[in-house]
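Quick one: structure for this chain?
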Amino acid sequence: MDNAQKMVSLPEAARLAGVSEDELRCAIKDGLLQAVMLQNTGEFHVSAKELDLYLRRSRNTPLNTGMRKRRVLIIDDEINFANIMKLELERDPRIEAKFATWGRDGVMMAENYKPDLCLIDFMLPDITGDDVMEAIQSHRDRRMKMVVYSAHTREAIKQHPNLEARLTELGADEFLSKSAGMRALIAKVFELLGLEAGAKIARKV
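Got it. Here's what it folds into:
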């Protein structure tokens, strides 16, 4: 078997691609990544060729822009929300996005992925959003934007006095309520990345 046909487990594929296992599972579910489920274990395995094709498609940059894509990292434990946010952002060919569903995974991905912007859910299952921001500080590019949001904004503020001041001190560009809706978050991403929302990108035919 040549290297292109070599099959690897989902955790290994995620490690090789520098993405989360959850992202790959969503890609398989949405038909964006071809995988094989082993009958004896129920685990997905992916060939190096299919993994490469998926990464090429997800990172495909329009040839005539002369610019690299803006990178967005979403750290949110609601996998469906994170995946939909990723797909919505990537409808614009100038953006690529990845997501993590645990705070500590997000910190590691931020170090390797070097995003232009991080969207961080404050209420995560392992650590809180301010802990994520603090951990990112040591390798954060000063140009990287950070947006923190929470579905339970009042509860978060009650549990963490002076929360907004602390987030600002750690470098948050915005603290939003998730109840404002995905559109508000997406609009803020475009604003902070300096992109005109809905701009048409010419493609070569």
